[in-house]
Design a protein that fits this description.
Layout lengths: L1 E4 L5 H10 L6 H10 L2 E5 L9 E8 L2 E7 L8 H12 L2 E7 L3 H6 L3 E6 L2 E7 L5
Parallel strand pairs: 4-5
Antiparallel strand pairs: 1-2, 2-3, 3-4, 5-7, 6-7
Length: 130
């Protein structure tokens, strides 16, 4: 498994992964993020152009808009690898997420606070935490 910056031909794969995770997404927003270099994908084999997308992370500036991994590939470190790639590209990341994934973000060094209604907000700053 490898994590790389998404290419324009990864758009359908990214949308499929996000849709499979029941995440609200917008085709045009994801396409624009790919064009800006703000989407990272996990693929089975980086050397193959036809390697399927098994995970995706979409950034909007320093905010993680979406992060998802195909169901059958979860719990294999793919989500962690995607967020860590984003951490190497940014000095600060912000994420809003369900409380059920709070331990995931805390394990990556995010400072997490409860926002109410079962949602949390996490902030990671380079040089702090992990």
């Amino acid at each position: 498994m490898a994590v790389r910056t998404a290419r324009t031909d990864d758009l359908v794969g990214v949308l499929n992964v996000l849709d499979g995770a029941d995440l609200t997404t917008d085709h045009d927003r994801v396409q624009a993020a790919i064009e800006r270099g703000n989407v990272f994908v996990a693929v089975r084999d980086e050397g193959r152009d036809d390697s399927p997308v098994v995970g995706a992370l979409v950034l909007d500036s320093d905010e993680i808009g979406n992060v998802a991994v195909r169901r059958r590939r979860r719990d294999q470190g793919i989500g962690t690898a995607l967020v860590e790639r984003a951490m190497r590209e940014r000095d600060r990341l912000v994420a809003e997420f369900d409380a059920s994934v709070r331990p995931f973000y805390e394990s990556l060094g995010f400072d997490v606070t409860a926002e109410g209604d079962g949602r949390c907000r996490g902030v990671w700053q380079a040089g702090e935490g992990r």
